[in-house]
Amino acid sequence: MSREIPVSDLMAVALARTIRDGEVVAQGVDSLLASLAILLARATHAPSLTWITVAGGVNPDPGTLPDSSTSPAWLQGTRAILGNPEFYRLAMRGGMDRMFLGAAQIDRHLRLNLTVIGDRDRPRVRLPGGGGAAVLAQVIPHVVVWRTRHTPAIFVPEVDFVTAQGNVEAVVTPLGVLRALDGRLVLDARFPGVSPEEIAARTGFPVLPPGPVRVFEPTRDELRILGDLDPGRRRELEFPRAPR
After folding, report:
1. What is the domain partition of the chain in residue ranges?
2. Residue 88 to residue 83: CA distance in whole angstroms
3. What is the dihedral of CA 199, 154, 179, 200, to 10 degrees?
4. What is the pLDDT along the chain (244 residues), one digit of tens a residue?
């Protein structure tokens, strides 16, 4: 494609493509980009997915992307409403296939930190915490993480605190897609205009595979449907002013 594709569009498509048709999918709090990705997957290659929103709705039909992942609009058209206890019981019974989670730090062992930056007892930054991430990352077989920044401070050799670890299979950032391979993260695809060398320089541990890295390309249909689902581009709210 000749025109430059916004990073938010690339990330939404990359997240959507991790979903398989027929899966039961959920996302965490403040997850507009992941919510949009689920909507996109349902409108394209995964029409039979079952979606449980953070608001408790099952298979909602909001029409377009609401302004918050906790908005009551996520209950529009829902077939049922699950409370927190039902949500976690379903996950622990093996009833969920895929979960989208965020993280403040990610390390080479695919461990996530959402708790503190620095020493646990005297942290430089105290984060909101992982909620149920410690459990969910263990019991949901496919966990996908996304960050709207990609720096060595985020991708660290060892996280300052292990909030969650388990079934992380992919990480999507403004630079590309990394996947789990033999217990470590390896670059799977780079976004247009991003070199493998840039990704290596902005990651705190080795991620380059021995061979060439493919360039990720969304289709025209995927980009068109994204525009229909989020005409106001609310997906940009998750990004800093300079997305990369």
Report:
1. 7-238
2. 9
3. 20
4. 445 899 999 999 999 999 999 999 998 777 889 999 999 999 999 999 999 987 788 998 888 888 776 778 888 888 888 888 899 999 999 999 999 999 999 999 999 999 999 888 888 888 888 888 999 999 999 999 999 999 999 999 999 999 999 999 999 999 999 999 999 999 999 999 999 999 999 999 999 999 999 999 999 999 999 999 999 999 998 887 654 5
CA distance 13 to 169: 17
CA distance linking residue 156 with residue 130, whole number of Å? 18
How does DSSP assign 105-147, residue by residue?
EEETT--EE-SEEE-SSSEEEE----TTHHHHHHHSSEEEEE-
CATH topology classification for 7-238: Glutaconate Coenzyme A-transferase (3.40.1080)
What span, in angstroms and rounded, lies between the C-alpha atoms of 175 and 115?
25
What is the pTM (predicted TM-score) of this model? Answer: 0.93
